[in-house]
Design goal:
alpha/beta; Isopropylmalate Dehydrogenase; 12 helices
């Protein structure tokens, strides 16, 4: 545990398209700027060579792991067949209490599989979900699930809603986050069979459920949490990433289109850079895999050192705000409320009715 903040993060040194270089650089940034301890997991000789003398006094330790889970491997098979991979060993640090959270930019499915094998699920969670923060005019909207569960059931969406609400309250400090169910219309009658079946379940939860929302409510920031199945959420995520890149690219082209545009651009460049920063995934770090008995953050496969640092920041915030405990308590309260309602609604068979 790090003496400066009391928080230690296990970081997959071999996860991502540009590992281990950017991961090591991100670890150094995180340790220096956030004051957290880092357990950098991977081939010890390779990681120490990359670190050089930069880690002195920063609270970075190297944990040896001899195997690597590749991005294109089957998640469950890779985790089973590579028990000494940087991913599995990293998650194990959390299970053994040596770290309070795990961060990886590697194979998302494998992170989920390793988390399930090593940490197990929170009681009451059927399927963990991946949650991503989308930039909006009002700050950020959490979309859950963005890819962990391509197929979902109504009860899964209800659990996603509880977990998303707890996360936004704990990490972002939003009191009673507004939760919406993604649909093709705001009316309760709209949506496919999954959405229509999930709607009453979300309505019965002890959260601030505002009903169905359309896709346009994600960038507008009208709600704090948007709930959907992982297939839909992943399509939304990829569309948003592509659209952000297209918009910034078009603006850049127009700025350099003529001498007049270039002169005009001198005045608006600072604003353009601020907007680009707000749209940059690297600023948001990583997506929490909610529902596990431990904090796991999945960073983008193309993560830069800045993105890795911010993923570590998100992990530390999740630990400090006790997101796992908050979700666990929320699910327990929901289960107790449901049991109480069922008991009230069911007649007591021991009672007899006197004839009139």
């Amino acid at each position: 545990m790090n003496a400066r903040t009391g928080t230690t993060i296990a970081l997959d040194g071999m996860g991502g398209d540009h590992a281990p270089e950017v991961v090591v650089d991100g670890a150094i940034l995180a340790a220096r700027e956030l004051g957290v301890g880092i357990l950098l997991v991977g081939p010890e000789a390779e990681l120490r060579s990359r670190l050089g003398g930069q880690a002195e006094g920063l609270g970075i330790e190297v944990v040896n792991a001899t195997q690597v889970v590749e991005m294109d491997e089957h998640p469950a098979n890779a985790v089973r067949q590579k028990p000494d991979s940087s991913m599995v060993v990293g998650v194990r640090q959390v299970r053994e209490g040596k770290a309070q959270a795990f961060v990886s930019a590697g194979n998302t499915g494998a992170v989920m599989a390793a988390g399930l094998f090593e940490l197990r699920r929170i009681r009451g969670v059927d399927r963990p979900a991946l949650a991503g923060v989308f930039p909006t005019r009002k700050g950020g909207t959490l979309v859950i699930d963005i890819g962990a569960n391509a197929d979902a059931r109504p009860e899964y969406l209800a659990q996603f809603a509880l977990m998303g609400s707890a996360y936004m309250q704990g990490v972002f400090g939003i009191e009673r986050p507004k939760v919406g169910l993604l649909s093709n219309g705001e009316e309760e009658t709209k949506g496919n069979a999954l959405v229509q079946a999930a709607h009453p379940r979300l309505r019965a939860l002890p959260i601030n459920f505002v009903g169905n929302v359309e896709g346009k409510e994600i960038p507008s920031g009208e709600v704090d949490v948007v709930v959907c199945d992982g297939f839909t959420g992943n399509v939304v995520l990829k569309l948003a990433e592509g659209l952000a890149g297209t918009i910034t690219g078009l603006i850049r082209e127009e700025i350099s289109a003529s001498v007049v545009s270039k002169l005009f651009a001198v005045g608006i460049l600072p604003a353009f850079r601020r907007v680009r920063k707000r749209l940059d995934y690297a600023e948001y770090g990583g997506a929490p895999l909610l529902g596990l008995n431990g904090v796991c953050i999945v960073a983008h496969g193309r993560s830069t050192a800045l993105a890795i640092k911010n993923a570590v920041r998100v992990a530390a915030q999740a630990v400090e705000s006790d997101v796992v405990g908050t979700i666990s308590r929320g699910l327990a309260e929901s289960a107790a409320a449901a049991a109480s309602q069922a008991e009230t609604a069911t007649p007591d068979p021991t009672e007899t009715t006197s004839p009139s």
